[in-house]
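Friendly challenge for the regulars: who can give me the structure tokens for this chain first? No prize, just bragging rights.
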Amino acid sequence: MWRYILLIVMSLSIACADDAFAAKPKQKRDAAKVKKEQQATRKAIQETSKKISANTQETKKQLARLNSLNSEITAKGQQISHIQSGVDSLDRHISTISDSISSLNSHMEALRSSYITSLRKMQGSSGSISTLSFIFSAESFTDAYRRVRYMQQFNRWRKRKAEDINSTSALLLERKNALDTARRSRTTALARLNVARKELESTKAETDKVVANLKSEGGSLKAVLKEKQEQARRLDRELDKLIAEEQARIERQRKEEERKRREAERKAAAKANKKSPASAASSTTAEAPKPAEKTTAPTSVAAADRALSGSFEANKGKLLFPVSGKYRIVRGFGRQKHPQLEHVETDNSGIDIEALSSKSARAVFDGTVSATFRQPGYGTIVMIRHGNYLTIYANLDGINVKNGDKVKAGQTIGTILTDPDEENRTILHFELRKERTKLNPSLWVR
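First reply, four minutes later:
Bragging rights claimed.
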């Protein structure tokens, strides 16, 4: 940019030098030549202005790209953290299943060993004769009865042992299948993790290039950042003005309702104290009527505001998100240092949300539209009052509401602008205030 400014200065210097030489008698220039030089100078200035403007636009796009890349890095980081957490959980699950399989294998071996030993003992006690021969070879009826009971108990024991072995074998097979499934899931998760890490590295590499380009255009970057900060300050001033005017209007309305209420009470008291002529004579010694006591009942405006404010506060952390579907927060609330650009700080009065699936902005809670207006850098803006709380929806392209409209939670209030200066991203600027006090929206919405 400075090369172009230097070119202008040099062109003007040459023109001045030509004028100086023109004063000399031997180097006179005709009017046509002077006019031609003036046209050339104007053309050079116009070309320089165009290049400066193009450079500024490119810087805006680069800055928008950087913001987009930073949000992608944050999202990828969260994705990697989530996948890594899943892998760690699978590792613990695999370890638990492996321990369970080892325990079941030991139990299975013990069952088989016990069963074989018992069978061998049985064969040793009865030899190779049949069960029936074993019973009838008894020396007495009592001994035969004992042998029958023994065989019955042994058969029940053998059946239980066989069932234990079968159930343990089935459980062992189930655990081995679960282990195979867990290992396959772990392999898939590790593959996703590697892909996410490579994408993150690629995004960071692109980010480094963008940062280098922006640093090379230091003057232009400062101008763009200054312009954005001034736009944010203008929006703050406009919102403060609108809120102050609305507060004054609400206070006037409250006072008017209070005046009407007192006037109605005065008339009611005067009507009640009005007496007939016959009773007026007997009231000379009566106690003077007491003035009507002042009521502390809230006016309708104050009561409605208080009720809505209480309900809004009760839903802190549970309010609807201002966009539906997938989204990501690309700029957080408050003052923060830029993650890549040194000595650059941003101050955000709300949060900037990139809508990834839906372009509709929706009301986060029941309320009344208190203002709609346009502001350079923020498109169309809608302000909704919820008692003494306000939500602001900026960077809208078209709106479905007007001043005074009652809105319900989740109602669509407008379409978010897809900004070519922001790489055609759809970004909603969302603020939340308690009158003029700025609050962090991330703590209120879900």
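Residues 294 and 387 are 26 Å apart (CA to CA). Helices lie at 2-22, 31-126, 131-136, 141-216, 218-273, 277-281, 300-314. Your move, everyone else.
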